[in-house]
Amino acid sequence: MKVTGYSSPAKGKFTIIAHSLGCYTSCNFALKHPHLIKEMIFLSPAGLNGVPSQFNAIKFIKSKPTILFQFLYCIFYFIWDLYVSPAAPGKLLGYYIGSSV
After folding, report:
1. Mean pLDDT of the residues in the chain
2. In Å, what is the CA distance from 95 to each residue of 16, 19, 50?
3. Mind listing the pLDDT tens digit for each residue in 68-84?
4. 1: pLDDT confidence band, cut at 50, 70 and 90?
5. Helix, strand, or coil (residue 37)
6. What is the C-alpha separation between 33 and 50, in angstroms, rounded?
7. In whole angstroms, what separates CA 87 from the centre of its chain?
8. What whole-number distance in Å separates Cα of residue 56 and Cα of residue 37?
9. Distances 58 to 5, 55, 62, 71, 77 between C-alpha atoms, Å
10. pLDDT reading at 57 higher than 70
């Protein structure tokens, strides 16, 4: 089997390029191994609001200034709990448009 990727600290520090939730994962890695990281580049990092176990969605939604915002956040959290990505409608639309060309 061929070994690929970073295999030895003797090769020097490296750059991490991450997208979305990979940014969060990369941060955890960098905190554990800062001596291995030269730089980090994040592309559209996932926004995490503090420690996930301490996040209270109901309290967060009730803190929104208007009923409309509260309603929209409720819809978002309902869809998110169904494991549907916010990007899913765009992906489906892109697939539909691409398949009809």
Report:
1. 78
2. 30, 22, 35
3. 988 888 888 787 777 77
4. low
5. strand
6. 21
7. 12
8. 33
9. 43, 9, 6, 12, 10
10. yes
Q: Which amino acid type is present at position 67? A: I
Distance of alpha carbon 20 from its chain centroid, rounded? Answer: 3
pLDDT on residue 2 = 62
Tell me the two tokens of residue 15: 């750059």
pLDDT, position 22: 85
The label of the residue with tokens 């997208």 reads: 19
Q: Which two tokens stand for residue 48?
A: 């995490």
Q: Give CA–CA dist 17/9, Å, rounded.
A: 18
Distance of alpha carbon 30 from alpha carbon 80, whole angstroms:
28
Q: What is the pTM of this model?
A: 0.44
